[in-house]
């Protein structure tokens, strides 16, 4: 008898048998395909040789010592923000407010530097105060949506996204009130600057790049241990899987949500502290540089694995810094072309993640192929 229901042309099923080497080969191939497409786009739009793009990507990172350390610094900051989002994401609390938490922490850092410095405090005392203040600012900005989520089950994605705009508005008001030049940039503050680190065999002098790298590795180790071995890491994973299950085994879900998001905000506060106290000593409403959004991709591509995030953060930093060198070498003044090229690379990487996790099964396959998708003990009727 003919089936009265129209069958779809294909359906998607989850892969369970792909090896780690095969998945790595897929990812590497996706990066190569993305680079090739980006090279072709840049070649067509600028009239340059498309294959000259790849050497320029590496030149933007390895041609000088300073460029290399800027690349390391960019990857380190992305890694820190990704690690900040990681515990919240594992709990399925979609924290899209990383930018706002970074901005508020940076603002709190610069307020300490400005007013405590004007009061005559020595730099070590200012630094000792602004470190906890920056972390506390990030925690407060993150926990506001968490409290509403825990108590009233509000949508955390929209709430944290809204907090980004509020933070940017507060920063803009403060800069206009304090600076008064209308430039939208706070004047550089000389008090309370976190000292840099002078590397051996380097002529650059004390720099903040190694400091960013060291802090990112420390946070990486702490976050891995917290999620893997600490009771809190187990509890937030259970809450992420099923809140009903968590309640059944006696976990206080509201407490876990608030506690986890406080941790997320504190780590974002570290980035704000570095931006204000060690790197820029000033700020604008764009100081976060959209790291809160870029780090979402870093976290997702790593599948919430802290050590895999080192690789994804490095990839994003490589593409970003390398493409900046390509635009400079080709004389590209329209930043949209560079952004589209970067987007193509990201798109191929994200697309292959779907192919790694799922496969497409067409319905004209044999019955034997269909039966493999059915639970054991059931028949295809």
Envelope shape: globular
Low-confidence stretches at least 5 residues in length (pLDDT < 50)? 365-370, 377-381
The overall strand count is 2
Taken in chain order, the helices and strands follow as EHHHHHHHHHHHHHEH
Mind telling me the C-alpha Rg?
Answer: 24 Å
- Cα distance, first to last residue? 12 Å
Please specify the SSE layout and strand pairing.
Blueprint: E1 10-14, H1 20-46, H2 53-62, H3 65-90, H4 98-118, H5 123-152, H6 156-178, H7 209-229, H8 231-241, H9 243-248, H10 253-279, H11 291-301, H12 308-330, H13 335-357, E2 358-362, H14 367-371
Antiparallel strand pairs: 1-2
Helix pairs in contact: 1-13, 2-12, 3-7, 3-8, 3-10, 3-11, 3-12, 4-5, 4-6, 4-10, 5-6, 5-10, 7-8, 8-10, 11-12, 12-13
Any overview of this molecule?
This protein has 381 residues and is mostly helical. The N and C termini lie close together (12 Å). The longest helix is centred in the middle third of the chain and has 30 residues, at 123-152. It has 14 helices and two strands. The model is unreliable at 365-370 and 377-381 (pLDDT under 50).
């Amino acid at each position: 008898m003919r089936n009265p229901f129209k069958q779809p042309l294909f359906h998607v099923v989850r892969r369970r048998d792909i090896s780690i080497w095969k998945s790595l080969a897929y990812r590497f191939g996706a990066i190569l395909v993305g680079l090739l497409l980006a090279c072709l786009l840049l070649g067509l739009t600028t009239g340059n040789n498309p294959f000259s793009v790849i050497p320029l990507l590496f030149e933007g990172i390895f041609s000088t010592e300073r460029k290399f350390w800027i690349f390391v610094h960019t990857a380190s900051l992305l890694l820190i923000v990704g690690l900040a989002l990681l515990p919240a994401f594992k709990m399925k609390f979609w924290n899209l407010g990383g930018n706002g938490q970074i901005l508020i922490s940076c603002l709190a850092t610069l307020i300490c530097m400005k007013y405590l410095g004007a009061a005559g405090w020595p730099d070590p005392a200012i630094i000792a105060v602004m470190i906890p203040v920056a972390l506390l600012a990030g925690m407060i900005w993150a926990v506001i949506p968490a409290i509403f989520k825990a108590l009233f089950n509000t949508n955390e994605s929209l709430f944290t996204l809204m907090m980004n705009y509020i933070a940017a508005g507060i920063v803009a008001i403060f800069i206009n009130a304090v600076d008064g030049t209308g430039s939208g940039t706070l004047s550089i503050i000389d008090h309370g600057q976190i000292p840099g680190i002078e590397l051996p065999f380097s002529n650059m002098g004390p720099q903040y790049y190694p400091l960013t790298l060291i802090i990112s590795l420390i946070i990486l180790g702490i976050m891995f241990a917290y999620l893997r071995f600490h009771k809190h890491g187990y509890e937030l994973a259970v809450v992420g899987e099923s809140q009903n299950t968590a309640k059944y085994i006696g976990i206080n879900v509201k407490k876990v949500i608030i506690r986890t998001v406080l941790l997320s905000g504190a780590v974002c506060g570290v980035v704000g502290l570095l931006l204000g106290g060690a790197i820029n000593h000033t700020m604008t409403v764009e100081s976060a540089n959209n790291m809160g959004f870029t780090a979402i991709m870093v976290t997702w591509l790593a599948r919430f694995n802290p050590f895999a995030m080192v690789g994804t953060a490095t990839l994003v930093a490589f593409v970003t810094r390398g493409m900046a060198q390509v635009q400079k070498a080709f004389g590209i003044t329209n930043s949209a072309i560079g952004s589209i090229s970067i987007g193509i690379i990201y798109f191929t990487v994200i697309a292959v993640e779907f192919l790694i996790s799922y496969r497409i099964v067409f319905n004209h396959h044999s019955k034997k192929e269909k039966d493999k998708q059915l639970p054991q003990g059931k028949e295809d009727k």
